[in-house]
Specification:
The protein has 104 residues and is of the alpha/beta class. The chain has one domain: Rossmann fold (3-Layer(aba) Sandwich), CATH 3.40.50. Helix content is 26%, strand content 26%.
Length: 104
């Protein structure tokens, strides 16, 4: 595998402190979260990977929060809410992006 260039701080690398949280029913979203974590770590980010249900710390301690959750019948997995509640105040102050995985 070719080495990947380091990410800039704006792209998720070089000392960036990142929380990758995920909700999953069958494990596929966990696999996506693990892949995201691996790439970010290869590029210099400090990454904490957790199930969304297990997130207890405030999002304020992270520079970036990534929340992955499956979408089933147009609804987020119920555990996805746990990750957002932990950082609701901080999330209002941050630019947020959400990713979803859906069964095809």
């Amino acid at each position: 595998m070719a080495s990947r260039p380091a990410l800039s701080r704006a792209e998720g690398g070089s000392g960036l402190n990142v929380l990758v949280a995920y909700a999953t029913k069958h494990g596929s979203t966990r696999q996506v979260a693990e892949a995201v974590t691996e790439v970010m770590q290869e590029r210099g980010a400090q990454v904490t990977l957790r199930p969304a249900r297990a997130v207890r710390e405030s999002a304020a301690r992270f520079d970036l929060v990534v929340l992955g959750a499956p979408l089933n019948s147009g609804r987020w997995h119920r555990d996805a809410g746990y990750g957002w509640r932990a950082g609701r105040t901080r999330a209002r102050q941050m630019t947020t992006r959400r990713c979803r995985t859906a069964r095809m």
